[in-house]
Amino acid sequence: MDIFRVLSRGASLKKTKGAFTDYATVSQSDKDVAASVKSNGGQVDKELDFFHTKKYHLKEDNSKSDSNTGIEKEQEEEYVPPPPKIVSESDAKAFRKAFKVQVVGNDIPFPIGSFEDLITRFQLDKKLLSNLADAKFTEPTPIQCESIPSTLHGHDIIACAPTGSGKTLAFLIPLVQKLGQNQKNFGIRGLILSPTKELATQIHNELLKLTKGKNLIIGLLSKSLSGKLRSDLIKGNKYDVMVSTPLRLIEVVRMGKIDLREVKHLVLDEADKLFAPEFLEQTDDVLHNCSNPKLQMSIYSATIPEEVEELAHSVMKEPIRINIGRKEAANTQIKQKVVYTGSEEGKLVALRQMVQNSEFKPPVLIFLQSITRAKALFHELIYDKMNVDVIHSERTQIQRDRVVERFQKGDIWVLICTEVIGRGIDFKGINLVINYDVPTSAEAYVHRIGRTGRAGHTGSAVTFFTKEDSLAIKPIINVLKQSEQNNGYASWMETEDKLSEKELTKIKKGVERESISTVPTVIREERKRRGVLYESSKRRKSGK
Ligand SMILES: Nc1ncnc2c1ncn2[C@@H]1O[C@H](COP(=O)(O)OP(=O)(O)OP(=O)(O)O)[C@@H](O)[C@H]1O
Fold it and tell me: What class of enzyme is it (predicted)?
């Protein structure tokens, strides 16, 4: 594994279009069929309706052109439901067609049709199965059906599936199964990396659920655990699995407090972020320290651009590539819309108007591009007596944890945030995501809006844009277009051309925006002018 080649290649990589995925569309008639099947005795847990509906009643939407009129018309292909048990090549083909699954690689096992399949095919640990049932995970989602058997088969995995589609369990189940029991002081055998502390905490919580009653020691490399390791109050080798962000991990590794040589299973969640320039060096360092020749590696994200896949290939062993849904689209459970507000002031007006109508159904997440702007909007909304809080990286970890907890419990209705919770966080039942500021890439957009429409629920996403965003809105409109959602933009705003490297970099830098304030620009300008005069008159009077 030539990890240093990764870095040098990373530096010279050309930015290419991101790879996005999505589920197939479920039409109303599909839902009707689903309802009729349910009434015919299907044991469907209401909570899991989405996965069941998807599983048995998907339909192909193939657009074909009418040769006489040249007009695009929709043709519905006869839908053949996937078999409940997948025991042959044709069963696997039917399953993959139904769920728009693409799998590339050698020696690919059949997907599973149920968690029970794992007992017969892989002798799934009974405790793990009962933990899944206790957590109400009764049926696997498409990404779980496909990636669990491949991982248990021993393959490296590159998996790309929509936001909220169950990728966490897709990597946790095989990990827990493969680890078996605690091997006293053997050292860390499973390692999960995530780009943020919030996401690491969430993964750790899910892992605790799955390993309940099992003799495994699971660690979350928090500030406090890191402190204990540094002062030798705890030995790193007592853990079977560690969940961490790259930076915190590499600090204790460098101090010799944690050894990664025994790691056999490595998962990179939100892998495209971990391979992005701001994390690449740390991720590379971690990979370099995972020197076990038997290392099995899995990378997961809802967006895996081609260059990330290239990087991943250079450090993985003949990985199997699993892709669910359509490239370059967002999760179709989300109704997307862009709203032109003209100016910064227009955004506040538009937001206040939204609050007045039925579109604004809490819980709502509002994303802004910077901490300063997040704080400013918070002060505006708190003034409106809204039940609102704000989360960003300047708040302490305790404050951040508390805000997340209060939002989860429903004590906070509107949460203003920065990119810090843009990825992976599984808030239950978010109804609306508002991009107060346009995200700086299509990938960031897909992840941000993916905080809603999770686990089969529907959701909405609204993105405000101003005249300053004429370039930055283009990748977002492209995602809307790929998701077949023409809401809030004119067709002339669509572009067939790929944005140039220069344009993408410019977008990434972010737009300089006027500050958020209810005070109109003219008055602000006037105040500023008077302020300047006031200062110069003071200077004149004091003779300085
Ligand atoms: N088999 C299942 N049955 C029912 N619910 C499930 C199942 N698998 C996952 N879920 C639920 O679906 C939700 C989304 O799962 P998860 O957080 O793993 O999504 P994800 O694909 O990782 O999304 P993101 O890309 O945003 O990180 C969670 O609330 C999870 O508990």
Answer: hydrolase
